[in-house]
Amino acid sequence: MRKVLFALFFSFLIVAVSQAAPGGGVRCGRLVDVRTGRLLENQLISFDADGTITSVAPAGSSLPSGTIDLAKATCLPGLIDVHTHITGDPSHSGYAGLGISVPRSAVTGAKNARLTLMAGFTTVRNVGAAGYSDVAVRDGINAGEIPGPRMFVSGPPLGITGGHCDDNLLPSEYHHVAEGVADGPWAARAKVREVIKYGADVIKICASGGVLSKGDQPGTPQYTLEEMTAIAEEAHKLGRKVAAHAHGTQSIKDAIRAGIDSIEHSSLIDDEGIALAKQHGTYLVFDIYNDDYILQMGEKAGMLAESIEKEKKIGRLQRENFRKAFKAGAKIAFGTDSGVYPHGDNAKQFGKMVEWGMKPIDAIQAATINAADLIGVKAGAIEAGNFADIIAVDGNPLENAPVLENVKFVLKGGAVARNDFAAK
Ligand SMILES: [Zn+2]
Predict the structure, then answer these.
(1) Is 412 tagged catalytic?
(2) Centre of ligand 1 from the C-alpha of residue 302, in Å
(3) Which residues contact 132 (CB under 8 A, 6 or more apart)?
(4) Is 50 exceeded by the pLDDT of residue 351?
(5) Could you count the other beta carbons within 10 Å of the beta carbon of residue 321?
(6) CA of 129 to the centre of ligand 1 (A)
(7) 3-state DSSP call for residue 50?
(8) The whole model's pTM is what?
(9) Residues 134, 166, 204, 389: which is the catalytic one?
């Protein structure tokens, strides 16, 4: 009898321990409500052991033990960048990139994943990587082997022969073709199936020419409407969204009509393209910070002379069209093309978005609720049921967006990645 009682006692104890497994809490002196644009005072955010937010409420006079106290800071949801190239660096541009192996780029990705997380970006969508190096980085992060943001990755981007997503640096005798090249609707469908087989969460394609590729023009179409319709249909059938690189006016419209989910760059979008994006609910992603970097540092970084010339023609137009699309009410998600400029500087785009027509809250919404909606992730707002992804800064980002360039606290899924407030 005694033994049975002991056994019962211990089994109760085990149940009690596992139920009481520690989650945690963060008290924020101020909290940006990203849906309303209001600043809430003195809030306590609680989360469970799985790193999911369970409640957000005014903090009482005494805090539960173990609460992280950020009484002097302003908290926001972890930021989201929907257009990164985490396995690449600016120094990999042009011919230098040919000397970098896929395994080597995965190591670069591990370095950049950490920099991105420390800068306050707790989720990223990585759209284009050599081989499946981004799949490897994602899996390493998810296994707890390296620090980094929650990653949604594409693997190699799909494109036409000789297009922006091919690699056109070597002459024909090398027979070099980038992994994502697929011409024609059925080859493109097969490529969608292939990248999903090897781990893609999202499909990246090149609809038009680009800036950093050799021998093409940003404004000219590459994938046809027919090819993109096949890609979108195949990807959606298999539960994946499609991001289309499209600078060109015609390609933007073709991609939207094909049912693509987001238009990357969107540089030469016209009024009809903006109207189509609104009608289809397509997200537009304008990477309007990196123009500064390309023009100032591109040559030093080894970018092709033609790339810098192309950027000179397109950079300002992209910013003007960003302002136009935003004013017209198109859906905009925050994406920066990190890797074109150094990783960790992602938040420098907030200031540009304000300079070109947004209020700080609009830019913050692009990098939180809008980006989360595009990716389809339970993040982007500090609300029960979402991942406990919280960042904190000094100052008020609703008045001064560039304070987001100095993130001092990062919590990802309930785990502290950075806390400069505690160091004081
Ligand atoms: Zn890109």
Answers:
(1) no
(2) 17
(3) 102, 155, 156, 198, 199
(4) yes
(5) 26
(6) 9
(7) coil
(8) 0.93
(9) 204
Using only the alpha carbons of the chain, give its radius of gyration. Answer: 23
| Residue 97 parent element (H or E) | none
CA distance to 138, 141, 202, per residue, from 145 (Å): 10, 6, 23
Burial of 9 (0-12, 13-18, 19+ CB in 10 A): exposed
| Closest to 345 measured CA to CA, from 302, 414, 287, 299 | 287
Distance 75 CA to ligand 1 centre (A): 29
Alpha helices in 131-202 (DSSP H): 133-142, 185-197
Does residue 3 have an active-site annotation? no
Q: What is the pLDDT of residues 167-226, one digit of tens each?
A: 999 999 999 999 999 999 999 999 999 999 999 999 999 999 988 888 888 889 999 999
Asked if 350 and 95 touch (Cβ cutoff 8 Å), the reply is no
pLDDT, tens digit, for every residue of 359-416?
999 999 999 999 999 999 999 999 999 999 999 999 999 999 999 999 999 999 999 9
As to burial, measured by CB atoms within 10 angstroms (0-12 exposed, 13-18 middle, 19+ buried), residue 320 is middle
Distance in Å, CA 326 to ligand 1 centroid = 21
Ramachandran bin of 257, using left for φ above 0, alpha for ψ from -120 to 50, beta for the remaining angles: alpha
**Active-site hit among 337, 348, 352, 408:** 337
pLDDT (tens digit per residue) in 269-320: 999 999 999 999 999 999 999 988 988 888 888 888 888 888 888 889 999 9
Phi, psi of 149 (to 5 degrees): -75, 165
Tokens of 255: 């991609």
Please give the DSSP secondary-structure letter assigned to residue 156.
Answer: S
Decide: helix, strand or coil at residue 17.
helix
